[in-house]
Amino acid sequence: MKTKWHKIKNSYFFHSFIHDKVAIISFIVLIILLCCGFFAPLIAPHNPYDTTTIDVMDAETPPVWMDGGTSKFLLGTDDQGRDILSTMLYGMRVSLLIGLGAVILQAFLGVIIGLIAGYFGGKLDALLMRLADVQLSFSTLMVAIFISAIFQAFFGINKYEEMAVPFLIVVIGLAEWPQYARTVRASVLAEKKKEYVEAAKVIGFGSGRIMWRHILPNTLSPILVISTIQVANAIMSEAALSFLGLGMPVTKPSLGSLINAGFEYIFSGSWWITIFPGILLVILILVINLLGDWLRDVLNPKLYKG
């Protein structure tokens, strides 16, 4: 254990991290936000899903530092009387779940397709890459509108509200997998020409074993970098879809649906309903992108200094 820690401590990765203030601050902020989101039921002052604790008479209560504010609602309440701070924490958890779930689905599809296309090449490669090109020609919004219309036509709006989280994970995952496929394919094309792959073929290893146990581990660096960026993109996609009314319903708050719910009140004086969730969304996306940029620079072989 001591030897492992010594190796980590003396590694270029760890050395780069502790000497980059932006990376350290971004990492700390991200950990705090993740803890606040996933432990929302323990941290939040109120439960926005418990209708028995919500009073419509508390609607549009301003933050505690403004006239009419109360310490019971530190950041005020929304138009339904729900505590803004609590809905933000619960909403961030939903946004994070959708973002992480969508990226897992993207990576699963993209890595498999990218490995197959890059390793076997030929007509199969051309077919899969043209499929990726077709997919990229459709935006996440277009895919969401199309699938949402079909889903609601078959199962109804009530069922859609119940299945909103897995629905958004599938929609965003299906819309963004070509990013992984192209990245993995490019790495596989470079790796499969190397001697260790030829040696594995000579030994008699099958294509599946060579792809998954030999080539894939050497493509993890770009996958890790793109995953960081894609988490931020997935959260932004969810927020955009929810803002347009195609994502999470108002009864199940996400950061996007919270911004949408308060948008019509922003010019009537109740600006906090939209502004505070918007600020939290910006901070969350910013720290993820900053960490993604740092990770990209560290894992870029051209920048490696031993």
Automatic annotation (TrEMBL):
Top-level taxon: Bacteria
Start and end residues of each ABC transmembrane type-1 domain: 92-292
Topology with regard to the membrane?
A: Multi-pass membrane protein
- Subcellular location(s) per record: Cell membrane
InterPro entries from the xrefs? Answer: BP-dependent_transpt_permease (IPR050366), MetI-like (IPR000515), MetI-like_sf (IPR035906), OppC_N (IPR025966)
Membrane-spanning ranges? 21-44, 96-122, 134-157, 223-250, 270-292
Chief site of localization: membrane
Q: Which UniProt keywords apply?
A: Cell membrane, Membrane, Transmembrane, Transmembrane helix, Transport
Which Pfam families does the entry mention? BPD_transp_1 (PF00528), OppC_N (PF12911)
Answer yes or no on keyword Thylakoid.
no
**UniProt GO cellular component terms:** plasma membrane
Family (UniProt): Belongs to the binding-protein-dependent transport system permease family.
Official protein name in the record: Peptide/nickel transport system permease protein
Source species: Desulfonauticus submarinus
